Amino acid sequence: MERSAIKKISIRLVPFVALMFFVNYLDRTAISFAEPNGMGDDLALTAAQFGFASGIFFLGYIVLEVPSNMALHRFGARRWLARIMVTWGVVSLLFTWVDSTGQLYVLRFLLGVAEAGFFPGAILFLSQWVPGRHRTKILGLFYLAQPLTTVLGAPLAGWLIGHHGLFGLEGWRVMFLFVSIPAIVLGIVAWFYLSDRPAEAKWLTPAEQEWLTTKLEEESEGKTGAKANHGKDALKAAFTNARVWVLGLVYFGFIYGLYALAFFLPTIISGFQEQYDTTFSVMDKAWITAIPYLPAAVALFFWTRHATKHGTRTWHIAGPAIVGGLSIPLALYMGSPAATVAVITITACAIFAALPVFWSVPSRFLTGAAAAAGIALINTMGNIAGFGASYFTGWIRDWTGSYYASLYVVGFFMLLSAVLIISLAARDGRTTDQVAGDGDGGGDREPVEAAR
């Protein structure tokens, strides 16, 4: 029955939520494809202005992150995630007609406000459907959408940009038009397709519903927030938990690296033309941008499978952080575009391998409204990193004339993540699962050794 229930969730629920995430991430990062393909020239953007436009999204997101996740816990994921998708789809559609830097700033801020709570809400939603021993696997399948967004989204964006003149619009405006509509459609579908909890899922048998509900209730006992009946109690339980703040700082480092790549990789690739005296078409640049993310998706899949099978250990998170922190500054010292992209691929693999494993940790010691608040708080700190990576990468580029110093900062924050997660585990001399207070440990597996 366990195998059957988890299989149904993996097939029926996870792909749809991952598709929502795919569209979410594509809309969020579409600006990175637009800037080097006409928008930067049309709006006369400097690197710092582009970085600020990319990063101000996260300020809007941060403002409503925790309240949005608390609302999701109260009103249910089906209604709230559907509402978020339709709202951000409408705002994203307005980018089609932006014609000044000021308008760009306003719309990016509003896009962040509209999207607030989607990602932590999706993490919370999926975590509430499966027992702890299956959570890393389920979140890994969900997280595949993020690297695949670039693998598929970069060529799609390049293809749409190539339709310059359609409806009398510049190519980058055509791209914004057609990547926004799916969000609105999916939001409407989500209202009817999703169920808030296993007990409401008609596609599960009564026995499967009962097993999942009972198992999840058993796991919630003894976790932080289990006795928090009111919003204030849940917020206090999450905000006074030291593990939440340390995990937020760990996540900060990973997200700083993720968005430095997401927003500036297309621009760096465009710079190859002058640096190496070569020429790339729009589709050439789109395909080159996609290269690091396909191996990253493969690395993510097998890394999460290993963590699921053997139990999440400290090095499942710290190891990729160290690899990413050391590799990213080396990228711009390579002697050719191929070598540079190869090193960036290593960094992308490291970041994406660690993220779904990381997100399996908070729900191991938080439950209920406290989990909603704690996961949102951790993601808020990541979004602060998203703003910092976007703005300061561009600002340092304008100040120094190159991306070398910017990528050293990225490497520093990723190495800091490794130090923090190792320190969190070493404090009790345990594995990451056990540090997080997971009474289940590795599920049916034997307890794993203390991390060294």
TrEMBL record:
Q: What keywords sit in the KW lines?
A: Membrane, Transmembrane, Transmembrane helix, Transport
Report how it sits in the membrane.
Multi-pass membrane protein
Q: Give the Pfam families listed for this entry.
A: MFS_1
Where is the protein localized?
Cell membrane
GO MF annotations in UniProt: transmembrane transporter activity
Q: One GO cellular component from the entry?
A: plasma membrane
Domain Major facilitator superfamily (MFS) profile: where? 13-429
| Primary site of residence | membrane
User: Biased composition, Basic and acidic residues: where in the chain?
Assistant: 442-452
Q: Which Gene3D superfamilies match?
A: MFS general substrate transporter like domains
Q: Does the keyword Transport apply?
A: yes
Record keywords: Cytoplasm included?
A: no
Q: Which residues cross the membrane?
A: 9-26, 46-68, 80-98, 104-126, 138-162, 174-194, 244-266, 286-303, 315-333, 339-359, 371-392, 404-426
* Location of the region described as Disordered in the Swiss-Prot/TrEMBL record: 433-452
Function, in words: Component of the tartrate utilization system and may allow entry of tartrate and tartrate dehydrogenase.
Full protein name = Putative tartrate transporter
Taxonomic lineage: Bacteria, Bacillati, Actinomycetota, Actinomycetes, Kitasatosporales
